Amino acid sequence: MVFPRSAVPHIGDLPAGPRDAITDVAGVAVGHATLAEGACQTGVTVVLPHGGNLYTDKVPAAASVLNGFGKSVGLVQVEELGVLETPIALTNTFSVGAVSQAQIRAAIAASPEIGRAWPTLNPLVFECNDGYLNDIQAMALQASHYDAALAAAGTGFAQGAVGAGRGMSAFGVKGGIGSASRLAAGHVVGALVLANFGTPDALTVAGRRLGRQLLGALASAQALPGAEAAAEPEPEKGSIIMLIATDAPLDARQLRRLSLRAGAGLARTGSVFGHGSGDIALAFSTAYTVPHLAAAPMPALPMLHETRLDPLFRAAADCVEQAIVHALWRAQGVSGRDGHRRQALCELLPGLASEAWESACAS
């Protein structure tokens, strides 16, 4: 079940954009390819900063690694050069290689000079481990899944147990893809998360501690005939990828500062960036592009002044937290490998889906 927008608590005081999604930032598109076949519960999600050729017209970007338990590709060059030259891809841990190769092939198809007259390409792939629900050892994702996600990219897209989020878990329930946006100081800030982190006892939504309720609901569900026996609490060992887009004119250094504020939104949900959790944030701006060819003119526009960044920092924290809430609210229960199942949060705590609960959060 997908709950209506009115039933989802709104984080913070800033207004959302019309979609309350990262695609409220003009030019940004998102696409999914979902593989849901028995033990294979996984997928690919792509985020496009603009609809043109990202290799020839790169966008400024920067990342923050809150906890580096991850196997991503491409972060070193982003840190060095401060630009993106492919779409951002999200997938499971063991599919990073297949997806990065698909990114390279797609870029070469658009620009045959890559790797010959022009330099090679920096693919950018982030991952989380979906191995509880997905048979990750099967390595079932192929280049065709990346191509399908790329072809499906648009401004309207599903959230929850779709694309890269298909097999992800969060707080002991179903996690996945979530997105949100905020309007601040005349600019738009949008976020998209791949949520696969958190322990049930720590769950906090809009400032309300729900961990005790969730633990009780999980214990009751596990006591049902045929349900998996309750396990001892484990330390946090999942991951989350947080992508932030904005139309504000920021350089790579400022974007790194913006990306770091994703950690504030993540922490509010109950995460402490645990030892085994890979927590990575990346921010990019759509305000201008950086040409690949030296003969092309460099952009000449004023960057936002440092003293005007605070509203964007607040927006980034709020929309990351909101995106995590959306991932939890919009996910459906999924069964996968060896009979493993993750129930949706709103199946376990159905009162969360009411407007009365939203009103209680706002009071």
Automatic annotation (TrEMBL):
UniProtKB keywords: Aminopeptidase, Hydrolase, Protease
Q: Which GO terms describe its molecular function?
A: aminopeptidase activity
> InterPro entries from the xrefs?
ArgJ-like_dom_sf, Peptidase_S58_DmpA
**Entry-linked Pfam families:** Peptidase_S58
Question: Which top-rank group of organisms is this from?
Answer: Bacteria
- Protease recorded as keyword: yes
- Family named by the database record: Belongs to the peptidase S58 family.
Q: What is this protein called?
A: Aminopeptidase
Organism, as annotated: Cupriavidus malaysiensis
